[in-house]
Amino acid sequence: MNIKILTPEYVVFEGEVESVLLPGKNGEFHIMKNHAGIVSSLIGGKVKLFTNSVEEAYAKNLTKENEKDSVFSYPIKSGVVEFNHNKGIILCE
């Protein structure tokens, strides 16, 4: 599935991921391939991307959670996510 993370200043990440873990108002929630369409607000926390690789252009924006797993994170203050047809966009600050 394709995920794009945008801030008002730049594109944080764009690429294929296995899944994404997001900080929602009622707790974290996981979006995986073929997830039903969703629009949700996000609170402060970490957006976690589960992916095997990150393009070099985006790697500087993300933190690798640990050496063993392919989990990359990006801290946000707030935002919104829209996901439909295996494409998601996360607008955040």
UniProtKB/TrEMBL annotation:
Any one Gene Ontology molecular-function term assigned to this protein's record: proton-transporting ATP synthase activity, rotational mechanism
Bilayer topology term: Peripheral membrane protein
Positions of the ATP synthase F1 complex delta/epsilon subunit N-terminal domain: 1-58
Principal location class: membrane
Compartment list: Endomembrane system
CDD domains recorded: F1-ATPase_delta
Record key words, sorted: ATP synthesis, CF(1), Ion transport, Membrane, Transport
Pfam families, sorted: ATP-synt_DE_N (PF02823)
GO cellular component: endomembrane system; proton-transporting ATP synthase complex
Assigned protein family: Belongs to the ATPase epsilon chain family.
General function of this protein: Produces ATP from ADP in the presence of a proton gradient across the membrane.
Descriptive protein name: ATPase
